[in-house]
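Same chain as my last thread, 857 residues:
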Amino acid sequence: MKTYLLLSYLVASVFCQAQSSYKYLNPDAPVVERVNDLVSRMTLEQKVAQLLYHAPAIDSLKVPEYNWWNEGLHGVARNGLATSFPQAIGLAATWDKNLMHRVATAISDEARAKFNIAVSKGQRLRYQGLTFWSPNINIFRDPRWGRGMETYGEDPYLTGQMAVQFIRGLQGDDPKYFKTIATAKHYAVHSGPESERHTFNAEVSEYDLRETYLPAFKMSVEDAQVHSLMCAYNSVRGKPCCSNDPLLDSILRKEWGFKGYVVSDCGAINDIWGGHKQAKDAAEASALAVKAGTDLDCGRQYFKLVDAVKRGLIKESEIDVSVKRLFEARIRLGMFDPDDKIPFSKLGEKEVDSKAHRILAEEAALKSIVLLKNEKNTLPLKKDIKTIAVIGPNANDEHCLLANYNGFPTSVSTPLEGIKNKVSSNTKVLYETGCEVAPGVPYVEPVNVDYLFTTADKKVKGLKAEYFSNQEAKGEPVKSKVDTEIDVMAADMKGDFSVRWTGVLVPPLSGKYYLGCRGGNDFDLFLDDSLLVTDGNDPDNDFSLKQVSLEKGKAYHIKVLVGVNAPRSPFVLLWSLPDMEREKRALEAVRQADVVVFCGGLSPRLEGEEMDVEVPGFSGGDRIALELPSTQEDLIKKIVATGKPVVLVLVNGSAVSINWEKANISAIVESWYGGQASGTALADVLFGDYNPAGRLPVTFYKNAAQLPDFHDYNMKGKTYRYFDGEALYPFGYGLSYTSFIYSPLAPKGGTITASKPVAKISVNVKNTGTRDGEEVVQLYVKGKGTAVGEAVKTLKGFERVAIKAGETKTVSFDVSAQTLASFKKGKGFTTDKGEYALLIGSSSADKDLKEVKVGVE
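reply #2:
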């Protein structure tokens, strides 16, 4: 026995010494040598397994498991507590590059902190890693696309500039280690329709491809050195994006010099053969994708690569290319190095939703708000107003403000709460929803504990709760108690667990209710022993509601099963009570009020990613009509008819055609999905504690009839650059509580020559009002117009500038030949000799711009 133990010890010692000598574990060795050393020690089967987003551990090589799927669009998402900044479209509306960098830095702080905490607990689950599938930099070419709220708007330059700052903030500036890795998505030419994204082929001209769809990706690669891209579901010119070798190789790697890795959108490899029919089966599709340059599969198709090698569809050496790219990323994230080598290893719990980040979220929300109309000095409101009526379906809806791809902050400030906290103690605030956000989309709220009981005798309020140490509620519960708060976030449980709540529901009214749940967990809701709703753990489409008829005072048996994994997400038991009097009560409140604030718009329950929505004006997450839903328009008209002053607050992620509202309401504010500080920021604007300066990152059209067919990816007639109609509100537009004037520009701004490659164009901007404020100065290059297939004008520079009352500031832009370049077939981006017109002003509208000429010799 002693001999056996000694031999075992010697073998183990030799093994450990061999491991310690592995070059890939040496933090001081060159990255390329470390990668080559590691991959050389792996079998084909091990390599293939590493190409799936949930990569298993290789214990013999000290390779820990890793889940590549993480989200951070406007805050760390789907990973419990996190600061929630305004949705991406709102961040774009700030037109503030410095702010964007600070927001992304805060997100990466929280991301690293969460990763460090998870690893210390031995957790390496989805949404706990360091590779973030953000930002979404697709061009919001058409307001009907449901995912446009995830983007930075319709303009390539604004999108690219904001993306560069976001990527830099996520990835950090350490010369050796990535703080996190950003993923620019969805590459490329991807912006609806949602219901056809798995089969749709986008036909687009080379001009539009280069001038509109690719510039933001090019800037992300060349200027921000983004280390990851995600290829899209759709095809471009007949080739699926994830096996599209011109996009992934010729353009991305050879032309732009991209050095990182490409991940597929989730299920996109399956679409190559199942949707686009480019391949016969999963093995062939996987081989095509890897050879084209898609390194990582968000799916399970790449399991077939072993079979593909055996069939001669791909060589193991070609698979090695992708494996090496992925391990380079993991090594540069520090996953194989000691903590004392990594500058971010000490970030921890104190960073998550910290006071500094909450202040930053409020600043971002403030800067995102756009004042669209303010006649008769309706705004700002007085804080000592006698009575204010806050009406509308979005006035107190927390979920609406967090949009999608979101985290869960400590608290969320709604417009109603913001207003209540802002006004004086003598002001009476009346609140009513007044209507549904859209027909059949009810306002829902947590089921009040006053109507939940442990048994039918109604002696004990709450539900009986049984907690299990597994996700399936199997075996004996580890503890049982009565819960008056149906919330898994409050549960004193560690790791994966499940809870079974049982009891009775006693409705206060007879009628039709919507009953269901919301939360990023697996759940089943039973009513009287029948399954009412269930959820498949879809973290964005997380509302599961069903209409049921209930009788007042009757005890209905209720059972809720929730399986929770780490990181846990909130779970809420929801209902919408029958209410035939909501409009009547709203109008009564209006008649009592001195001013009305109507909070309407849209909802992430209506617009979003591949949704099952059957509501007039909406389809599959996309929009058919651009007007406000009829429920809101009808109520708004009745409110205005009372003659009371009305402020319309829009809470939405895309442009709305508010023609009647613009003509009949004196003050209109666009607040987007503003994140956790939305209500506080809105109140600061409404009551004058902050002077708004946000600008529209999209055109607000009068109606959908002004636009070409949604399926047409050519840009003629779309966005401010190619639209030749009259917009409701133009791109770049936004008002202030003060006024600014631009000094006249000299007719000539200089000449660009070989010896003088930059012309400096300057303008003086004076704040002529009585309040300090900010102006967003915008620089455009004038084009020849849509008649010859070129843009009417194109944004080439912008600066958000703070100017005190009475002060004048000089804003300058450097203009080079590259600034003036445009794409020409057969020549690429070129700048011809001659004279160019530059436009400087406060929006893209001609009336807001001043012209100056620049020559090129």
